[in-house]
Design brief:
This protein has 280 residues and is mainly β. The chain has a 14-stranded antiparallel β-barrel with strand order 1-2-5-6-7-8-9-10-11-12-13-14-15-16. It is globular and about 55 Å long. It is built from no helices and 16 strands.
């Protein structure tokens, strides 16, 4: 997938209110919806738009409580049955005690696919962070509970409760440069055993700002390796227990234009391998 974003805007940080919008074009060589194993096997262009609003209810030296709303829309040239619309609502609370950060986040997302109600998700994510004494490594541990409810009758066997635990280490290299590494284990319990699985994910990312013509350009790169081991044979009459393995590589370059506005170019490569032929 290749994306080119047109100028985006983010509001100044001084206000308790925040807002950002971005829009752009992307090309996807094989449009898919992972949550229902749906693959188009064709490529298409899409216009994408996203925006967010936020408000800091409480914001002082050691406590923050904020609420927000996010909107995302993709509109494809040809395969409009893969058009995606997401409304997201969130609340987040943070408390800092010396070098320890305690936090909890609630998210609700309601999603349309091809202009039809598709999926509702409730997510609760408590976390704890700790800054090591050298001030160069920040450790985070988190638990995530997610309730997924599909809106179409033929998909309700995929309704699921997902439990995840993660550990991450953020290395602060100075001058805005960072390396982030992490491991996540997930247990996905679906109504139908054919969609239940144990999942593991390894990930690493890099942020590297640098100056070009007196502008701070930011390069980002990330890699994720994901494994899913399913509980039972799929509903595709396969006789083999399903296993998925996926490599995901993403790079982007963000270029500031003027105060609050930037443009971004992004590339993503996905190599998906599965014992289920329809998603291999």
């Amino acid at each position: 997938m290749v994306g080119i974003a047109v100028p985006s805007f983010a509001q100044e940080e001084d206000s308790p209110f925040s807002a950002s919008v971005s829009a752009g074009l992307e090309y996807d060589s094989n449009i898919t919806v992972d949550s229902i194993d749906s693959t188009s096997n064709v490529g298409d262009n899409a216009f994408v738009f996203d925006g967010s609003l936020g408000f800091d209810v409480v914001d002082n030296d050691d406590t923050n409580f904020s609420v927000g709303y996010d909107f995302y829309q993709s509109l494809h040239d040809d395969v409009d049955e893969f058009d995606l619309q997401i409304h997201g609502f969130n609340a987040d609370v943070r408390r800092s005690i010396d070098r320890i950060d305690l936090g909890a986040t609630y998210l609700f997302n309601t999603i349309k696919l091809g202009d039809e109600s598709f999926l509702d998700m409730h997510t609760i994510r408590p976390s704890v962070g700790y800054l090591l004494s050298n001030n160069k490594v920040y450790l985070t541990g988190a638990y995530e509970y997610q309730d997924q409810s599909f809106k179409q009758v033929n998909l309700m066997g995929r309704d699921a409760i997902k439990h995840s635990g993660s550990l991450k280490a953020l290395f602060l290299l100075g001058d805005g440069r960072t390396i982030n590494t992490g491991y996540t284990y997930s247990r996905h319990n679906a109504l139908n055993d054919g969609f239940s699985y144990d999942g593991q994910r390894l990930e690493a990312s890099l942020k590297l700002p640098f100056d070009v013509a007196n502008r701070e350009v930011t390069f980002r790169g990330s890699y994720r390796y994901t494994i899913r081991n399913y509980d039972a044979e799929s509903l595709q009459f396969d006789t083999e227990i399903r296993e998925d393995r996926r490599h995901n590589l993403r790079t982007s370059l963000e270029i500031p234009l003027f105060s609050g506005f930037f443009t971004k170019v992004e590339y993503e490569y996905i190599d998906s391998n599965s014992t289920l032929a329809s998603v291999d």
